[in-house]
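Everyone, describe these structure tokens:
***
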Amino acid sequence: MNHLLIHLILLVAGCFSSPLNLLHHGKRDSDINDLLQSKTAYKNLPPLKSHPSAEERTLKAGEIPNYVTQYAPLVFLYSEEKYLPYNIEKYVSNFRPTWRNGTTIDILGKNPKDPFYQNQKLNLSDLEHLPNSKEELVFLTSLSDFDTDPEFITGKNNKPNLYTGEISDAPVVLIVTDKGNGWIDAYWFYFYSFNLGPFVMGFGPFGDHVGDWEHSLVRFYNGEPVVVWMSAHGGGGAYFYEQLEKESLDGTGIGIGNGKQPVIFSSRGTHANYPSTGQHSHDIPYAILSDFTDRGSLWNPAMNYLAYTFTLNDESDEFEISYGNGSHPLREQRFGKWLKFNGAWGDPTLDPDDPRQHWSPFEWKYIDGPTGPLTKNLLRTSPCQRAKWWNFWNGCNIRRYIQYGEGIFDKEGNNSCGHFYSRFQNKYIRRIVETLTMGGWICFLADLFYG
């Protein structure tokens, strides 16, 4: 009986169309079970490869195809967001490089004997000359008290233009990787100067940190978008492009429902990314720990971005970062190879004796800053960056419908069995179906494993 119910649920879910319909290669009738289980080889399509050969690649080093920016995600910032996107060039000038114990690290070209050495500004191009130690992390430590919310922490002036969605002083970072056989991954990295952690049962905030890198992935096959993944708390969600909300910003305002840029919602404080508005519980059961999204200002990252490619060097057999054709010519060359920095983009966890530090039953208030873009598993063939602690089967489902937010406010759709039940207009039939699915538990399990 349970076996039949699972198949019934999957049959209804299968009524949602797949992005393979976008691919004009005669694959429409292919079975998409492998896609749903996120195997490295897409069913009836060539496999993705972390290390494609020169013959398998379609892009040259530094080449950014036009379709990458045409399908760039649009990001709805939270309407009451206090910590907005920031300019990484300006950001680093407020920090000095240190080891965890606070010892300042010498910067190439700066005199360590200078009594004002610790207050010399750090340039973005200085980052490539800092130690890339695997044994001990390098931190960017604030020159002033970040806890007072200075401008370089809040980015209070960095609000998107109402018509174009551009934030003129907060470029995003685009890194394109060639996964071979027509597959291209476009990683969009969004930088915020501060992550405001959540409250749990009256305790908090906890898990705050200086510096915050979030990102999304748009995966293309032969120039057509297939999958969109978005980061959230070290994990994230993968969705078929076709099923996501899409809009456009062409200088005349928002074109709701008639665009082609996938829409992402950035949550309040944590900047975790979701495909819908509302309350999004994560990591702890019963919605004890939640993010909140709504339709605040709409940000169009494609208006202001730095562009790079991550390509295998056939001679050295090592991956290299190459400058791409970003939105502002030659800006990448001026900034240098800052992406080589593998340290933390913020202060280390504050000492328990620091008056700014506070303990909670869940975590300290201030923890380590995050590491940068090249540490986010850019060579992955699965859309997901990594599996969360509870994901013991190491799955990465590509969802066939939007996972809508919960709660009362800002909720715009139904979840899980809500899609299934809504198909039955007769209340008696719907009640029978609800009973057969154990009030939604079977739908929940099917959703968890199959999306």
